[in-house]
Design brief:
Blueprint (H helix, E strand, L loop, with lengths): L13 H30 L5 H32 L2 H19 L5 H15 L2 H12 L5 H13 L1 H12 L1 H15 L10 H7 L11 H4 L1 H25 L2 H7 L8 H25 L3 H21 L6 H14 L3 H10 L6 H14 L1 H15 L1 H21 L14
Main location: membrane
InterPro entries: MFS (IPR011701), MFS_dom (IPR020846), MFS_trans_sf (IPR036259)
Protein name: MFS transporter
Length: 411
Amino acid sequence: MQASQPAKSSLFSAAVIVAALGYFVDIYDLILFSIVRVESLKDLGITAPAEVTNQGLFLINMQMGGMLLGGILWGVLGDKKGRLSVLFGSILMYSLANLANGFVQTVEQYAWLRLIAGIGLAGELGAGITLVSESLPKEKRGYGTMIVATVGVSGAMLGYWVGQQLGWRNAYFVGGGLGLALLLLRVSVFESGMFQQVQAQTAVVRGNFLSLFTNPARLGKYLRILLIGVPLWFVVGILVTLAPEFGRALGLQGEVTAGLAVFWCYFGLVFGDFMSGALSQLWHSRNKALKVFLVFCAVLVGVYLFGIKGASTTTFYAVCFVLGMSVGFWALFVTVAAEQFGTNLRATVATTAPNFARGAVVGLVPAFKYLSGELGFLMGAAVLGGITLVLAFWAVSTLPESYGKDLDYVE
């Protein structure tokens, strides 16, 4: 076991740097399929536009299904075995899966490897945010998670550039190689001191996922946290991933590419994550910052669906950029999840919450298919997005404020 980390860590400590770089590679690999979806499926012999859409949604569901499973696996391990074991174990798993992704020859192989990659991708962010939150003084931890998010989401932009320049197979090879290279930094990171203190207390039960469901107050808090993260994955998993289809529905002047839409959305997310984290620190309130960004997101979803019909693709990508800014509260959401629970359940919550929110795409996709069939492509998306945003706003409004909360306690 590594020595525990000093009680007061620098904002640019090894834990923050490795968590940020790990999230960078995580986002690169997580969003890469959305970037190369059309090219990779056509290369595998799927050429009909309807089949590209259907098979693409199937593969997204496999990846997100893996993240649901991985969220529970890595979350429980994070509280039982430690934050570091999950941080680096998850990186190893998704890196190997993505290397293998570069060799697929059939959609079935593609699907199983996206499932395995999804399981691996589920662990990094929650473990990283938990480690950073427990390693930094309470007045600095919002800035620490802001750095993790701002650096991390820019991985999507590298994914787009690599995918465009080197092709989809090499893009997977690069992602896997980056993850394996990151493992070399393992020796410079210390385990959380809070976790080690709880680990020494043999009477404390750690990582009991089912305990989230046996206490009504705890369950209510957990479910509200999950609802906060769903709008981001409605935007990324539906609006941006299906950008070519939305471009046609909007009658845009030119063909939209999913890769470029993802690039601009995540470029916006870089600024959004920085702003939401900074505002939560300046206002001394996580909840106030979240509410502002949810309203911002609602406005931009309306603009995306109804404000740019017949516009140029340049205008469409500009809206994707601002839409990305509006959902730039992802790390703030995970920070709130970590701050709401004790040390013996913190990694479980901080890891399962973002993955269950991401995994909500599994439910959002069939809901969108049904609503778009009943109401039309654009109105179906509007209704679904409206539901997710209203529920998220209610969840934030009823959740206890966690800014400046002392995290050295157990459930």
